[in-house]
Each structure stands twice: as structure tokens, then as C-alpha cells.
Amino acid sequence: MNDIKIIAFDIFGTVVDWYGSVAREVDSLDLGVRGSEFAMAWRAGYKPAMQRVASGACGWTIIDDLHRQILDELLERYAITGLDEQAKRRLNKVWHRLDAWPDSVAGLTRLKSKYTICSLSNGNIGLLADLAKRAGLPWDCILSAEVFRKYKPDPDTYLGVARIFDVAPGEVMLAAAHHDDLAAARACGLATAYIERPTEFGAEKPKDVSARPENTVHASNIENLATQLGC
Amino acid sequence: MNDIKIIAFDIFGTVVDWYGSVAREVDSLDLGVRGSEFAMAWRAGYKPAMQRVASGACGWTIIDDLHRQILDELLERYAITGLDEQAKRRLNKVWHRLDAWPDSVAGLTRLKSKYTICSLSNGNIGLLADLAKRAGLPWDCILSAEVFRKYKPDPDTYLGVARIFDVAPGEVMLAAAHHDDLAAARACGLATAYIERPTEFGAEKPKDVSARPENTVHASNIENLATQLGC
Question: B71-126 pLDDT, tens per residue?
């Protein structure tokens, strides 16, 4: 644990509240579908879309474009016809306007005093920069699947963080609210911090956030991670 | 000018003082060569090394590794034998420890209130992140040739900034202390800001920093750029 120099953060669900943010914006547009349902359906298309890229079924495609493909499918599925091209483009960029969890900025600011902190997200660089600027996330560096042209959980992404900063994999910690992401990082030799986000899918569908012994740290949120790491 | 959304900054010479920083560190090591001479010789190897990459003579190679190749040549040329591998690695990373010009942090902070500000440097991502963390450069995003796997002045780097942020090339301004960099950006449709750095090569070798009409803005430093852009 004393070897850690870099902490890389998953973003969607870990640092920002995608579910609540997308649901609120969809509700505000009055499209005739519940925002919470639309947010879950949009996110459900995300992993299959990335798998199409990872499998080689299509070339490298950034998340903005994958989000747009899924959005177009959903607009058809829900028979939503009132949006012109400009409105669709704007709605697609709701993923650039996700609100941070209340502890994110304070926790990251504390961690930054002792560690190099970066994102490691499947979101594209422009999306992550917009999120950071809007929410005030104080990254030392924005790293994205787009830098590596591979999506997590490809080992090139986790090992890429170590390579970028010229450190050993064991000197990098991945912080994420998702066990599959952490497991893939651990297989590459990274330390792992599980961040509890019990309301990632809404307060009405609480997520199991019980501790698992394989993680280096289990933290109730990012401020608590900072406390545990002595920041 | 009112269309500008993104300002991308060249780094070496424009935001940080590579010459003075490298010269001071070399002098402090007492290697038997004047720091100012060593700094100039090191930098002189930089463009030819990048051209070897651009020409395809060698595969993609980051600046840290090009700097090391040049350093090894210089240690031989100057018959410097007193450095072990750890000392060579540490000296090579002097390029991660360059001091910012006195106006850089204040100017960038002002520009950040109105624009998205990023680096666009041939330095690798880890180098740029280390520079920023040490000097407090408040980037919204670190962009590097490493993201595009092309070195400036390849058009893919300038157009890459526009693509990353999903804006038109004319909505991006490159700020640099070098006319060749600005000319290449202008050929891609970017706006350009020339930043005077008369002492880039030391106070004893003042650089011609006279204005050229082809640039969108001519600024005496980054604080002055902020003033001219209404920040």
C-alpha cells in the first residue's frame, strides 16, 4: 500500500452519478418515457456496444458515437419522434453533463495532495474533460480508453496507466464501484479500491456493496478513501 | 475570435522554460560541461529524433525515450562517465521538472474561466502530467502527440484537438512561441496566438519576437493573452 503512486478512477457510477443525471434530464424533456427507465435502457446498450468494438465487429468507435447509436435505437423503441437533429445531439451529450457524487471533488482534492490522480474510463477524452470542467474534478491527468484504443477490461488499459507514468503495475491503484473492473485490474497486478455507490441505480434499487476480501481497500466513498490513505 | 472555445498550448518554451531548467540542473550536477551548452545540445537532437519517427525510420517512440537516446549520445560526446544508470534516468527526467514561466499559472487560470484549456505538446502524457502537477498548471485536459501517435507539425495533431472536443478547427486556437508550429496549425484552420518568449534560449541570446500579421493574436505572455481575450 505504501508503494502506491497513482490512483486511477473509474468514472461512470464511481465519480459521477450517471443514472440520476440522465434520468433527470430525460424527465425534464417530457418525452413520454420515465427518465429512470430510459437511463437504464441507455446504459444497458453500453457493454454490448463496446463488445462489438472489442470483438472487431466494428472499428474503433468512441463512446459518444456508441451512445448515439443506442439513443437512436431507443428513440425508435419508445416511438419518440419530437426531437430534431440538434435536440438529439444535445440529449446525447447529457453524458458530458453528469453530476459528481457529493464527496467526489473533496475526496479527489485530498488524494491529489499525496498521489497523482487520473481517470481511467471508457468515456472518450472530450466527454471526460467536459465532465471534469463542469463538476470541478481536479484530475492531474485524464486517461481514457481512447488513449489506448482499447476498452476496459482489456489489460492494455490498466497496464497502460503504469506505462504512461513509468511505474510498476503495483504502484497503481484502480478505484471503482464495480467488481468486474477491479478484478481485471487486479489480474494485471494493480492494487484495487472498491468504492460503495449503493444508489448507482437509484435509491429504489439499492446495490449490494458488501466488502470483498480481494480488494486492497474498501471505502464508503472517495472522502473515506482519502482518509484511509492518510490524506 | 468570438468563436474560440478551446485554447491548446505548446509547452516547451511557451509555458515552461526548458532551457533555464535543464541548464540549472546540469550545472548543479557538476559534470564538467556548461549547463547552457548541454541544454542547447540536448534540444538540438530533438527535432531530428522526431523526424526519424515521423519518417517511419523507427516505430512510435515517446519523447522520454528520444531524450534518453540523445542523452546517451551527449554523455559520450562530452566524455561524461560519472553517472550510473539511476543517475542517467534521473537526469533524463529533468524534462519532467521544467519550471513554468512566471506568468503561466496566473494566465492559464484566467483563461480557464472562459475557455477549455489544454496542452498540445510533443511531450509524452506522463511528462506533461508531471510538469503540470509540479508547476500547478491548471489544464482542463492534457493532450499530447502520444494521444495521436503523430508528432507536430502533423495535421492529425492540430485537427485531433478539434476532433477530441467535437468542434470545428476554427473554434480551436493554438498558443505557441514558435512560428513554425503556428503556421502548421493555421494551415489546418486553427486560430493562432504567438506568445513572446524572448529568453527561450537564455537572456544572452535574445530571440526575435516581433509580431507577424498572419497570427490571430500577438501576446507578450500568457497573462497578456488572457487580457486580450477578455479574461
Answer: 999 999 999 999 999 999 999 999 999 999 999 999 999 999 999 999 999 999 99
ipTM of the complex: 0.96
CB atoms within 10 A of CB B229: 18
Distance from CA of A12 to the nearest CA of B (A): 18
Task: Give which of A134, A164, A165, A172 to mutate to test B binding, by max B Cβ within 10 Å.
Answer: A164
Instruction: Tell me which residue of A172, A170, A218, A174 sits closest to A197, measured CA to CA.
Output: A218
Task: Indicate the pTM of the whole model.
Answer: 0.97
Nearest-Cα distance to chain B for A210, in Å, is 35
Q: Check CB contact under 8 Å for A147 and B146.
A: yes
Q: What is the domain partition of chain B in residue ranges?
A: 6-17+98-228, 19-96
The CATH superfamily of A6-17+98-228 is: HAD superfamily/HAD-like (3.40.50.1000)
CB interface of B with A, residues 18-37, below 8 Å: none
User: Would you state the cell numbers that stand for residue A121, as one nine-digit string?
Assistant: 474510463
Is A164 close to B124, i.e. CB distance below 8 A?
yes
CA distance linking residue A219 with residue B88, whole number of Å: 40
